[in-house]
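Incident review: delayed structure delivery

Summary: a single-chain prediction request sat in the queue longer than the usual turnaround. Root cause was a stuck worker, restarted by the on-call engineer. No data loss occurred. The affected request and its eventual output are reproduced below so the record is complete for anyone auditing the incident later.

Affected input:
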Amino acid sequence: MWHEIVWITMIARKVWLGLGRREKIGLWLALLLMPVGGLLMNIPAIVVGHLVDYMLTSASKDFQKTVPYIVAIAAVIVCREVIAVVRKYLVENTCTRIQKFKTVDAMAHLLRVDLTAFGPEQRVGSIQGRMYRSIEGFVKVIKLCFLDFLPAVITAACALGVVFYRNQMLALIMGSVIPTGLALALLQMKTQKGIRIALLRAKEDIDGRVVELLGGLEYIRAANTESYEVSKVDTSCEYLRQREIKHHLWMAIFDGLKYLNEGLFHILVLGITIHLACAGFSSIGDVLAYSVLFTAVVAPLREVHRILDEAHESALRTNDLFEILARPEDVSYSIGSPEFSPSYALGIKGDPEMEIRQIVYRYPGGNQDRPELNRITAKVRKGETVGIVGPSGSGKSTLIKVLLRLLHPTSGDVKINGTPLSSMARSDIASTFGYVSQNPFLFAGTVEENIAYGCGAVMHDQIVEAATKARIHDEIKALPGGYQSLVSERGANLSGGQRQRIAIARVFLKDSPILIFDEATSALDHLNEKAVQAALEEVRSGRTQLIVAHRLSTLRGADRILVLRDGAVVEDGSYQELSNRQGVFAELLGAIATSAAA
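Output delivered after worker restart:
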């Protein structure tokens, strides 16, 4: 088990190295106060011993003569507690600062992390739960060291020092309780080694399941599967309960052994001190003083198993934080491209704006023999509206993610106005592309805040203008608070069409030179879709548009249509040209016509 203690020590060292200068100073000051507090903790025992001796040896019991003893004890206690308050403030103040900074750092990192860093098996709730628990673990390691372990050990060392100064043999006997207590603590850690990580991961699994279920609450209720989902939660909770009760049972057994060990040594110390008092080598007051000092010596042993147990769990959580922070950030955040400027003035209409050359993409862990994108090559000229269609799984959304640099191609490259996409910073990409997905991102806030999200400093009139173009202004004005109406998380209090039109208004407001719509009108009825299509035509001038659509009729006005199948471009032409060919596009049109007739 020594390797676990070494591992905990290594984690504690990494925690210490991860602290800022101000935090280290606060903890050093707290550490310097601990020996003072330790001495003050043990002085009352000596004073009480002298007081007892005075009471036993004084012929006349005069209360006035005991007052100095009482005042001394009171003064020591007051000083001790003042120092304890200052020490705890230093530690707690440092810990709250660390918790704040680490939460911000972890969140900032997660928002920048490479999208392939999280596998499909990981639930959002599990990641969220792991992040917060790991930060709690990081802070807990510090608190265990500076509020529990070090103060107790220093107080015990001070107590042994006081005893050793007065009686070396008795100090050695008192110190003998430590190896036995540590052996029991290490045995406890060994027998409970696997359960700590099992409990931690079980709690993360429950977190992930709950968040997942709350996200699908509407469908679960519509499908009447509440009982089924509750049964799965019950199974997970029962597994956790059984492991916890087993853990608590063993904790109780080891507690009993620990107190039995301390009790036997306490009896031995009492027996020796009483014998010394009877033989005249010490006083009756010393019996009481040494008994109290012994309780200070064994105080760390009473808590060492808990401290080591919690330290191990906290170290595991802290290691999770280091693992999260070690996940690679998307490379676009570390690249600057000062020469690139996403301006409309770059070229004139008809010049190549986007060149896609031999793009291959394979998902990590996917079928390496069948890439999701297979040598896609295409040119999109400035001002063109290009449709992207294909059967499900043909690679449409993957291509869009590559163009937005959310995914990085295995091979090949993309150029925007002659600038390689791989050399463009994330800020450049964000200002170049306006993007609306099938499931647009809306957050808990006002309608106005949602439209203005990511658009920088904008005026209210500009927001209204963008909403009007997106054919959502009248519906916003009809809301109780108008543009100040609150949108719930994920836009749950809005219809699918309203969510998409707010996202479209956002991209109109952003005013980027290249607009990408990934099934952006899929949730609209035909009337609203027609209105939005008209709005898209209004903002088309001078801008390039890429439109992914299942509803092929929305692409009648497109300049060109790229048809994908199995990750490759198999057709390229206008709506009319492709309709007249006996190809994939004609098959898709035929399937739609057959479905409509049915």
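Verification: The longest strand covers residues 352-361.
Action items: add queue-age alerting; document worker restart procedure.
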